[in-house]
Amino acid sequence: MDSNFLLQNRTATKLYYDYAANLPIIDYHCHLPPDEIAANKQFSDLTEIWLKGDHYKWRAMRALGVPENLITGDTSPEAKFNAWANSVPHLLRNPLFHWTLMELHNPFGITHPLSSSTAAVIYAACNDMLAQPAFSTRNLLQHFRVEFVGTTDDPCDSLEFHKTIRDDNFSIRVSPSFRPDKVFKLQERSVFMNYIRRLSDASGVNINSTDTLLEALAQRVGYFHDLGCRIADHGLETMPPVDEFSSDLDTEFRKFLADSTANFSNPDAFTGHILLHLCRMYHAHGWVQQFHLGAIRNNNQRLMQKIGPDSGLDSVGDFPQAGTLSAFLNALDQNNQLAKTILYNNNPADNEVFATMAGNFNDGSIRGKVQFGSAWWFLDQKDGIENQLNTLSTMGVLSTFVGMITDSRSFLSYSRQDYFRRVLCSLLGDEMEKGLIPADEKLTGDLIRRVCYQNAREYFGIAPARSVRS
Question: Residue 466 domain-assigned?
């Protein structure tokens, strides 16, 4: 696993180093904490920056029989790191094995494989580096040549940390993304009602009906827009139905808000009604909307109650997708209210469904207006990336693709962008050498530049970053 890792032939190597390796990064969907960017945080140790919050690693450790107290418990950071180091040699053929080597190499310069025998030396060396200014959050983003970070933010968020980042004139644009998932949790009454109270406070709107709920959401969309938000994001099992919300349901929702003993009979219709109106707001503001579909979340209720969501308790779902997705996009497109849209599937069986669905609603107005999004979550590894690229190439137009996302909470995860670029160059280099595409380096190199950087910059309207150190 040397500098030509994943580059299987001479052509792939040349494509990577001449056209992909040094491109900036547009990270248009991630879960980096904006407060840590605002504070230009220095991490106390390698465990904090690398293992905390990484449910990919947590899942693998549980599978290897590592007890939970060494994963999410209150044991020492070094004990948790050692548990991870002991696990890594047993992860051959899991993408975590690749990512571990890549993330230690860049930015730390560590080239030795992580194991129980190297753990102490690697832990000490990385901790020494993390204490240096070059390893603060802002300087790490600049080290990886990031130009744009799209965080994931609740509509109730004050966005105070985004204001701090903006007012500091940080060279990298860090923008909020509007993620209203909690407004759809109607089936969890106490959670939903607490959220409605928060949203009412944040918006200044007394929410007692669907109309006032939409008024509150519109206020927050406007607030986010004024602070630079241009992206909305949604995590759903499937798209909700449209045209099922009646006046009777509207009355029922009013009673649901006012009476703690009242029930609501059709949560899916409520979700469809609210989401459709939100999507019209996004279109009016010129935003991009993203839909992450198909995960079944929080399966293990025992661990969920103990350690909370986003803890590695989720899996691929097998929900029907095509019908409701088609109807929802069509309802917006009929009145020319369909914003630029990115569709992500969690189930690889849905690749062809999503790739062809995107093609239905490209209307010639914008290059790649509706996107079959990058390989996501369980699919963001070599096999999943190749499958997504192959499906998009055969059933859509690869040259319009806006490229990879990190979808990560870690400031070290930008190695995954490099991983994607290597996979892309290897795939195209192999086909050039086999004569499946022309042996035209400039033609293929231009496609690589577009997919890895240029398309996303144009799609999201992002200016190049200034070269300034924090």
Answer: no
Q: What whole-number distance in Å separates Cα of residue 354 and Cα of residue 357?
A: 5
Gap between the Cα atoms of 455 and 380, Å rounded: 20
Residue with tokens 């490209």: 362
Q: Give the pLDDT of residue 467.
A: 45
Burial degree of 19 (CB within 10 A; 0-12, 13-18, 19+): buried
Task: Take residue 286 and report the two structure tokens written for it.
Answer: 């010129």
Are 124 and 219 contained in the same domain? no
**Gap between the Cα atoms of 179 and 293, Å rounded:** 14
Residues 67 and 166 in one domain: no
Q: How many domains in the chain?
A: 2
CA distance 272 to 184: 9
**pLDDT tens sequence across 142-179:** 999 999 999 999 999 999 999 999 999 999 999 999 99
Asked whether residue 147 is assigned to any structural domain, the reply reads no
User: In one letter, which amino acid is 122?
Assistant: I
Per the document, the length of the chain is 470
Do 256 and 383 share a structural domain? yes
What is the arithmetic mean of pLDDT over 327-342? 97
The predicted-structure confidence for 340-349, as pLDDT tens digits, reads as follows 999 999 999 9
253, 270 contact by CB (below 8 A): yes
Structural domain boundaries enclosing 92: 42-135
| pTM as predicted | 0.96
Q: What is the dihedral of CA 394, 396, 397, 402, to 10 degrees?
A: -120
> Which uninterrupted H or E stretch holds 159?
none
Q: What is the pLDDT of residue 121?
A: 98
- Give Cα separations from 67 to 78, 84, 86, 96, 421 (angstroms): 15, 11, 13, 19, 36
pLDDT at 251 over 80: yes
Confidence of residue 1 (pLDDT cuts 50, 70, 90): confident
Q: Which of 109, 135, 161 is the last residue of a domain?
A: 135
Q: Which contiguous run of DSSP H or E holds residue 147?
A: strand 146-150
Domain assignment present for 266: yes
